[in-house]
Amino acid sequence: MRSTAALALAVLVATSLAACGGHDDDHDHPDAAASGDGGGGDGGGGDAAATPRETVTRTVTLGAGASREGEVALVAAGDKVHVRATASAATLAWNVHTHDSGGTQILEEGNAVAAIDYVIEGNPGDYWLLLVNGTGSNTIEVNLDLYGQAQYTGGL
Length: 156
Known about the structure:
Elements: H1 2-18, E1 54-62, E2 67-74, E3 80-87, E4 92-98, E5 105-113, E6 115-121, E7 125-133, E8 138-147, E9 151-155
Antiparallel strand pairs: 1-8, 2-7, 2-9, 3-6, 3-8, 4-5, 4-7
C-alpha cells in the first residue's frame, strides 16, 4: 500500500507541475461576467449555511495513474467554491492550485483518500482542482458549489 500512495503522490506532483503548463493555451478562460446573473448569495462569503448560487456536478472515471483537472474562477472579493467529492476507492490524490507569478502554488492537497471537502476562497483569480488516481479504476462524483460570482470555467 505504501508504494501505491507514493506512486499516486509522485504522479500528483508531476502532473500539477507539468499538465497545466503556463495556462496560456491549456484551459478555456471565458469571460466570467458574460454568464448572466452576476451572482446571488450574500456576496460576503461569511455565511457557511448560505445556499450556493449554482452547483456543478461531474462524474469522472479514472484508470490507474490517470488524471483530470477542472477550473473555477473567483470573480470578486468574497466569492467561494465549496468542492465536495466522493470516490469509489481510497486511491485518489488531489490538489487545489493556482498559477500566480508563473509558478504552481498548491493551496491544499490529499493523497490516498475517498473524499474531498474543501472551500476555495481568496483573491479573485483562476483556481484548478487536479484529481489523480493511484491504482485500479476509480469513479469520482464531484460537486462544485458556487457562491457569489464564482464561475465554473471548464474541465473534469
